Amino acid sequence: MIEVAKSVLLVVSALFPIVDPIGGAPFFLALARDYTPQTRRMLARRIAVNSFILMIASFAIGSHVLSFFGISLPVVQVGGGLIVIAAGWAMLKQKDDNDRGAVGRTVSSDNVLSEAFYPLTLPLTVGPGTISVAITLGANEPRQLGANLLAITGAVIGCAFVAATIYLCYGFADRLAVVIGPTGMNVILKLSSFLLVCIGVQIFWNGLSKLLASLLHPACFVVPL
Predict the structure, then answer these.
(1) Tally of CB atoms within 10 A around 149
(2) Could you tell me the pTM of the whole model?
(3) Which of 214, 181, 201 lies closest to 77 in space, CA to CA?
């Protein structure tokens, strides 16, 4: 039990700050603010489930998948960073609430859930940074059967905790909007969108700098799988 508890604490402390569901709530609300509260909670639940699956898959088999396809983590960071930049830029250019219509519109569950994985789960919630950390945690776990099962159990519990916080923060993001008010929420959304662009640029640069370093010092570059 002690080893499982240590694994849970390690996974939560490593993944929660990167996933940052509290900071991601304004992004979610910006993309889903036309939906009813019930629809947003349904969407938040699906995002939480998708995020849990992505984090566990990255922890358990992520390094093997990247190795099979010959993809390095810096390449994942470059591609993911570009997607995050594009998403943030689109949100920055989005019109304000006063210029939008059909607020609280009713949409079918199929249309809503089609957005749950991309872009709301990947890359806005579980992005390249989260995947990279999860893959690194999984690659550093012991290979003995007993110890590995304990590590996976701890990872499942830790990822489930992070997924639960995603649902709570996203599903009730509208409560935050009511407290802050339309003007305050719009300011937060614009600032958050700008920060999202900056985060995407940082992720992109992290990957690109490693790729450039591999060109300058190919013998010293080792892909962290």
Answers:
(1) 11
(2) 0.73
(3) 201
Distance CA 158, CA 85 (A): 29
Q: Can you list the alpha helix ranges (DSSP code H) found in the chain?
A: 2-19, 21-32, 37-69, 73-92, 109-113, 128-139, 145-171, 173-180, 182-216
3-state secondary structure (DSSP) of residue 100: coil
Q: How confident is the model at residue 147 (pLDDT cuts 50, 70, 90)?
A: low
Give the end-to-end CA distance of the chain in Å, rounded to a whole number.
28
CA atoms within 13 A on the CB side of 59: 30
Q: Are 115 and 40 in contact (CB under 8 A)?
A: no
3-state secondary structure at position 35: strand
- The predicted-structure confidence for 209-225, as pLDDT tens digits, reads as follows 989 998 887 655 554 44
CA nearest neighbour of 196 among 54, 94, 117, 95: 94
DSSP calls for 104-138? TB---HHHHHTTIIIIIITTTTS-HHHHHHHHHHH
Look at residue 163 and tell me whether its pLDDT is greater than 60: yes
136 token code pair:
């690194």
At what angle are helices 73-92 and 21-32 packed, to 10 degrees? 50
Which residues, other chains included, contact 18 with Cβ-Cβ below 8 Å and sequence gap of 6+? 127, 129, 130, 133
Token output for 119: 């872009």
- Whether the CB-CB separation of 117 and 51 falls below 8 Å is answered with no
Q: For residue 52, what pLDDT band results from cuts at 50, 70 and 90?
A: very high
Q: What distances in angstroms separate CA 75 from CA 35, 123, 215, one per listed residue? A: 35, 15, 14
